[in-house]
Write a structure and sequence with these properties.
This protein is mainly beta. The protein has one helix at residues 8-20, and strands at 62-64, 80-84, 89-95, 100-105, 110-115, 121-125, 131-136, 142-146, 151-155, 161-165, 167-168, 171-172, 179-181, 187-191, 236-240, 246-250, 258-263, 269-274, 289-295, 301-308, 311-312, 315-316, 322-324, 330-334, 344-348, 354-359, 366-370, 376-381, 384-389.
Length: 398
Amino acid sequence: MKKQELSRRQALVAMSAATATLATGAVNAQSSAVEPPSTITSPRRDFGPGADPNVYFWDPDVIAADDRFWGVMQPNAPIQRLWTGALWAEGPAWNAQGRYLVWSDIPNNRQMRWLEDDGHVSEFRSPSNNSNGNSFDFHGRQLSAEHLTRRVVRYENDGATTILADRFDGKRFNSPNDIVAHPDGSYWFTDPPYGGQLYEGAPDAPGGPTNPEGLLNNRLGQPPEIGDAVREMETACYRVDTDGNVTRVASEEDAPDPNGLCFSPDYKTLYVASTGKGPGDTGPGGQGNIIAFDVNDDMTLSNRRVFTECMVDDVKCGPDGVRCDVAGNVWASSNAGRNVGYSGVTVWAPDGTLLGRIRIPEICGNVCFGGPKRNRLFMAASQSIYSVYVGTQGAGPA
């Protein structure tokens, strides 16, 4: 059994709490952190393009928990590291027409692009307003959730930018995290508090939950229009209809600290990753679960249930980003903290049974399907982008 340690999200909370107590002095505490091993395979594995061959039939880091897993994975397909150089890679999305992958490097305030034809990587959009999640709608337009500006936007085909939503009931969002399109033309997104910190956005103005003592200068390094925002709302999930009307579809009680989200292939189920507490979060806090809802004909949600607690071998494989394949299996990124060998991707059958997992040597923040046949899984993991061909196809446009 692996000893469970702080997840990345929990670590961020701890750092925020420490900042808030600077004025009253440090608290003496003994750390329980354990230095993790440096590899997940022995001997040490090289994931780079110049690595020696390592796949004779199944990649050794593709691990089945159920025989059905072999039906969705691809024999002879190696896990590959395509690029490294981010500070925290998030929100991979595949553009089918351009045949490129775009993702966010949140602390570096940029979006990156990988071209399939020659593997070239370049800066795609900078600044990105500390964007997190990205996806493409049914018209090929990129959607982005921005931490810094606390809004969700759409990049039009002519190069213009449309603000889809930046407020609900007159109040600013916390820090939209992930966004997906629905066939009816609406957009659904999550709004946890993770962007309200120095590393991935901007803390609140003095007096706000992430800057209660006003010790942090939230205007440093920011455009002049940034700096007066404070967290005003609970964490929640929202829907923007074709007329721009914003509806709260799931409350903090329904899905606390919602992170990644996706629809089932028939759009009758919404999956939401409910992660741990974020900066300044005084609500109930997520438990590292994936929560499922039925999507009703009137676009409301019902029948809330915990789809999976994301436990593997008694190790919490905390979810962040989620995507479905065409058979309805749920592919979730795994943040297992210091439990080296459990970070990567977990794959769950529609009934919540663990099918298997893909392990990589970095914490995985988000996933998407891409490639011309949509049979390639891309993994945004800490500093790097990984991929592996699979035996199924992703559902939805991105």
